[in-house]
Amino acid sequence: MAEKQLRVTFQPHGRSVYVLPGTKVVEAAARAGLTIDTPCGGAGTCGKCRVHVTAGACPPTDAEREHLSDGDLDAGWRLACQSSICAESIIAVPESSIFADQHQILTEARAAAAEEVLPAVRKQYVELPEPALDDAQADLLRVERAIGPVTVGLDVLKELPGRLRDGGFRGTAVVADSELVDFEPGDTTGQCAGVAFDVGTTTIAAALLDLNTGEELAVASSVNPQVRYGDDVLSRIRRSGASADGGQELRQAAVGGLAELLARLCRDAGVEPGRVYEAAVAGNTTMEHLLCGLPVDALGEVPFVPVHGRALTLRARALGLNAHPRASAYVMPVIGGFVGGDVVAGMLATRLDAGETPAMLVDIGTNGEIVLAHDGKLWAASTAAGPAFEGARISCGMRAAAGAVEKVLFDGERLHCGVIGGEEPAGLCGSGLIDA
Ligand code: FES
Known about the structure:
The structure is a single chain. The chain is an alpha+beta fold. It has eleven helices and 21 strands. It has helices at 25-31, 62-67, 70-74, 139-147, 154-166, 233-242, 246-269, 285-291, 341-350, 386-389, 430-435; strands at residues 6-11, 15-19, 50-55, 77-79, 89-92, 121-127, 151-152, 170-176, 179-185, 193-199, 203-210, 216-223, 276-283, 312-315, 328-331, 359-364, 367-374, 377-384, 404-410, 415-419, 427-428. The strands form five sheets. A six-stranded mixed beta sheet has the order 12-11-10-13-15-14. Strands 2-1-5-3-4 form a five-stranded mixed beta sheet. Helix 6 packs across helix 7 (246-269). It is globular. Bound molecules: FE2/S2 (inorganic) cluster (FES).
């Protein structure tokens, strides 16, 4: 017999959901569209996911007794990651427990164009002679006479005769590597864009680039929607293995985040999504695996083995991106379980191996990585940096959101603090901690 679902109402938002008894408050909130901040990944050790259960509170757990006073417990305060739903409930979620969407993350574009642009996609406008009695060559050969030999899929071949005849045998050939991916009406050589994503555990950053010039057309970023399933990679790995569709849920969350960012970039830059022909994705190993729908179980236990280490080339549509239908998505290769494609991208972008050595690349994110270049070799190591830099397990710690002290300066007499958003200080974020 099906179990009766319980109604849970979240205040002050007034959102209600029905969940099975035993569902954690944090999950019920996620279903109601509220992301509760879980700095320790729901381990019950930071005590920062406080919520006020004003009706239907369950008996407190040991972790809750440790972090909340008797008075608070009696008044109905609970930890969202520990407390379960056991009755119809009304739960007030304080602002401080909500995962702030306005984190201090990349928002500015770099105006300068890249020094060297070698995109995989090239466009060529052609004006071809029309078929005649003495020139009855196949349509594809006619195109190849102008642009050189290409490979081609059946879907493009089916469209090609119509495109050629409708456009009077003039148009733009779009070639990715050596594959003809489209033949567009008119001269569209000036419209050729690509998108790059950096999929972090906490943040996704994206840039839309002009593939002709390398110029950044727009930059956008957002919180990785997977944060509602846990803050660090290990909680995501646990979540993925917790149910049959856990991995799929996480994948959908990331795919939705990427799609939303691409739509925003195209809107901001005034670029038609169909003119985006290439995507490049870099992320830590777990993020890349989850995004591609690959199993992550082995990444959660020693010796942290990834499914693959290679670069993957997929259709962008397979990652849910509303780009050109035959745009490809290049997913960066990973080095190991905790040294991922984002580090590889960083090494390539800085040409770490080609400059003066010894040199170091340091990426301090939720997971921290260091690569040392010396004597013609590259050495990489990583560790979980996030809990501290995201404010977890620090009594006054918080993420880099409004109210976070991000700078601390001592002028010899007095301490000065820089607070994000110029608001009343609410806690210390990573950069503030380092300064302090
Ligand atoms: Fe709940 Fe840390 S105690 S997230």
